[in-house]
Amino acid sequence: MPLGQYEIVRADAFDWLAKAKRLSIHAVVTDPPYGLIEYTPRELQKRESGRGGVWRIPPSFDGCKRNPLPRFTVLNARDRNRLHTFFRHFAESLLPVLVPGAHIFVATNPLVSQIVYKPFIDAGFEKRGEIMRVVHTLRGGDRPKNAHQEFPDVTVMPKSCWEPWGLFRKPCEGTVKHNLRKWKTGGLRRVSDTAPFRDLIYSSPARGYERQVAPHPSLKPQHFLRQIVRAALPLAEGVLLDPFMGSGSTIAAATALGLRSVGLEINPNYLRLARRAIPLLANYEPEGNDRNDQFGVREAAKTLCGKAVYRRSDVTLRGGKPIPKNGNNE
């Protein structure tokens, strides 16, 4: 497939959206800076110096230095109000620019997702579910700070094993079929004739080559992004927007799939990084994840088939075969 056309612009997302042509964008996939708190110069300086702030500096294991993570537990009431205002402004700015039926995929965090979702609903978007990115990071699972020996059997928070992506849709103009005919939007592109797009995706953190060419703090892997970007344009037509582009990984995913896209970034350092990283990431062939064969369903089914017993009131199955109530499977 030929690489898609893309445009990247140094711009404040809200300024750009205010001037953008109405009904010109067909999908949005983005990982926003949460109220710009973690990307203020003060917090970025703390991140670079390893002194924390909103960025948690994870411990090293086996000589491996881990990347800092945003620490949303430090947000106070004022920060949360700023976050709500930020997403209300974002949702209201997006609405007139999107065509009817356009989908929005927005990355968030279990600790703040409730603050993110409500402004989109209040602005008039339909909540269409969540995409669960199954990913294991160092977030959570810690013992009490400065008391880990006193309370060795206590975990302050569950260890995070998933990342929610809110899924919203601008209301369709009429039925979905009419909207698809007129605007090329309204649904999500299927994986295949037999498999729909699913809301559970196994995804390792971006590592190795991707991290080398695009060392952004919130880099998402191509293996994951290409799946949701592909789904966002159901007929592979229209323009996809990432208003908080960072190092351009979403734009690279769209480019790799032959889709048109626009990326916005206000930080000049990240914009320079994106210019270099997008063509490299677009030509990168990500390694597959066995558990993502049919988005994890096939692998999970194999595991359960061999090990699990599924019981219903009227039947018991083991290995896909019914077992009579006496326990014999002959």
The SSE string, one letter per element, is: EHEHEEHEHEEHEHHEHEHHEEE
Measured as a percent range, the helix fraction is: 25-40%
**Can you count the beta strands?**
13
User: How many angstroms does the end-to-end distance come to?
Assistant: 52 Å
CATH topology name of the largest domain, in short, is Rossmann fold
Low-confidence stretches: 54-69, 293-322
What fraction of the residues are assigned to beta strands by DSSP? 15-25%
CATH homologous group name of the largest domain: Vaccinia Virus protein VP39
What is the residue-mean pLDDT, rounded to a whole number?
82
Radius of gyration: 22 Å
CATH class wording of the largest domain: Alpha Beta
Named at the architecture level, the CATH assignment of the largest domain is: 3-Layer(aba) Sandwich
Number of domains: 2
Structural class: alpha/beta
Summed up, the helix count is 10
Account of the protein in words:
By secondary structure, this protein is of the alpha/beta class. The protein folds into two domains: 6-37 and 75-294, Rossmann fold, CATH 3.40.50.150; 296-330, no CATH class. Helices cover 32% and strands 19% of the residues. The protein has helices spanning 13-19, 41-49, 77-94, 113-123, 176-183, 208-213, 222-232, 249-256, 268-282, 297-307, and strands at 6-10, 25-30, 55-56, 69-70, 98-107, 126-134, 162-169, 200-202, 239-242, 260-265, 309-311, 316-318, 321-323. Strand 11 (309-311) and strand 12 (316-318) form a beta hairpin.
